[in-house]
Amino acid sequence: MSKADAGRCPIAALEFAQFDHHSAQHRADAEQVWDAMRAATELPRSDAYGGFYVVTRHADLRTAAAQHKIYSSAQGIALPNESRTRHVPAEVDPPLQREFRRLLDPFLTPDRIAANESKVRAIAVSLLDGLAGETNVEMVSRFTEPFPVHAALAIFGFPSQDADRLNNLVDGLIHGRGSEASIKASQELTAYLIEQLQIRGASADPSKDILAAVAHGSVEGRALSIEDQVSITRLLLFGGFTTVNLALSQTLLLFAKQPELADRLRNQPELFPTALEEFVRYASPGTYLRRTVVADAELGGSKLRQGDQVLLCFGAANRDPAVFDKPNEINLARNPNPHVGFGFGAHRCLGSAIAKLELRIALEEILRRYERVDLDPNDSIAWGEGETQGLTRLPLVLRPRA
């Protein structure tokens, strides 16, 4: 046994054959499942959805995420496939993927996103003001979900009054996969985005407005099709709505369980840069993404064949003890922190600067208002399933500062 294999133990393939990341409450005990998977001598394989391998070790995941010529995103990143057109650029492989990224990257730099701080903070303040006088609050529906939705619309220039409608459509697409309601949501969202692209394309400056840039955009010398324009815009909303909600809600759960974390961050705000990276590592909201093997390869002790499906588990990679000291604990000063919470390789998250801005502002405002937050003893939390996983219910008791 090599040094790299030290500590791994053979696990019967049957133990993982029924693995399904869409099963109810999967994330509630996922860490134990991930520990067992990382210990396996080969990649665990599930029989669900036509069969797929699960990549859980940090080194294996980075290998697969960096090798798009072997592990392709072009056949889809969800498992099973969703009833929609492809996500651009997430479901496009380089070199074409880089062309799409070059169109969007100038609008998503840290400096450009930082210019939105005042309006994002105003949204956080307004939502928290709405909780004034309340003690028992279900924080997902009241804050962690609506906050990034309104913030994303403000950053991308959508009408703020459309927040609830768009959130419902995106949620229906993500969680109603393959259903008639999901198909209807997809059609309604497409029609809405076409209208917005036409309005912004006709009235806004493409050098200053991301939707206008998409409407006037081109790749490889050809104008973007309306299908690609819609897909790019839809992906901006998907990422903007879900990632921060899931990371923020899990961070508040940590504050409720370990109030010393909130106290330390309140007293040492200089820790925010490393703390935000740690919260994203721990939460891993983009928990699973699919790749399709397009050339025979070997990964994690398994021989893979063209056409095989692999499910990259970013959550498990971010808890790999071979890389992270005490991975199931929060270290607000963890540095270095080579987490893959924003992905890795060519498909690393486009909107990471947005996520970090929104997380910081939300946590600053919460720490300013509340001495502590506690779990409501008369209610219970709930976890979602699928590729992007996190809390769907977080009932808290809010303790305002004097």
From TrEMBL:
- Highest taxon of the source? Bacteria
Tell me the PROSITE patterns matching this sequence: CYTOCHROME_P450
Q: Report the InterPro entries cross-referenced here.
A: Cyt_P450 (IPR001128), Cyt_P450_B (IPR002397), Cyt_P450_CS (IPR017972), Cyt_P450_sf (IPR036396)
Statement: the UniProt record of this protein carries the keyword Ion transport: no
Tell me the keywords, alphabetical order. Heme, Iron, Metal-binding, Monooxygenase, Oxidoreductase
Q: Which PANTHER family match?
A: P450, PUTATIVE (EUROFUNG)-RELATED
Q: Which family does it belong to?
A: Belongs to the cytochrome P450 family.
Q: What is this protein called?
A: Cytochrome P450
Report the source organism: Steroidobacter flavus
